[in-house]
From TrEMBL:
It catalyses: 3-dehydroquinate = 3-dehydroshikimate + H2O. The lineage of its organism: Bacteria, Bacillati, Bacillota, Bacilli, Bacillales. It is an enzyme of class 4 (lyase). Catalyzes a trans-dehydration via an enolate intermediate. InterPro entries: DHquinase_II, DHquinase_II_CS, DHquinase_II_sf. The record marks R18 as: Transition state stabilizer. This is 3-dehydroquinate dehydratase. The gene is aroQ.
Length: 149
């Protein structure tokens, strides 16, 4: 069975408590459960991982090579700052979809640029946690259309 990785960056472990006016009341467990339903309905398996530490996210991306068909990734604040994550994504073959709960383009100017978008398959922003579902469906469609992993 094909496997997908749901990867979440810093502060996403505080979903539901952190700035609910921006991020809503759903928890990370809610996100994981929703993505799990989508993945299972398409006969895939899901791994999920969250870290507040950049190096752990890089390690997990590197471990995806040869083991994961694709990655749904909310890099959170590292989106705007991490050349290291960009390099890690560029160095692996599984496609990566970047996800953001809020519309980063309607927020502070420093959030308007993603260091990662140029090396990702796509980007989903502004749909709340439903963006994870959209990203997952798009990723599966892309993998299936290319006959990947």
């Amino acid at each position: 069975m094909k496997r997908l990785l749901l990867l979440n960056g810093p502060n996403l472990n505080n979903l539901g408590n952190r700035e609910p006016e921006t991020y809503g009341s759903a928890t990370l467990a809610d996100v994981e459960s929703m993505v799990q339903e989508v993945v299972l309905s398409h006969n895939y398996e899901l791994e999920h991982f969250q870290s507040n530490h950049e190096g752990e996210l890089i390690d997990r991306l590197q471990q995806a090579e040869g083991n994961i068909a694709g990655v749904i990734f909310n890099p959170a604040a590292y989106t705007h700052t991490s050349v290291a994550l960009r390099d890690a994504i560029a160095a692996i073959t599984p496609p990566v979809v970047e996800v953001h709960i809020s519309n980063v383009h309607k927020r502070e100017e420093f959030r308007h640029y993603s260091m990662l978008a140029p090396v990702c398959m796509g980007q989903v922003v502004g749909f709340g946690i439903d963006g994870y579902r959209i990203a997952t469906l798009g990723l599966i469609q892309k993998i299936e259309s290319e006959g990947g992993a």
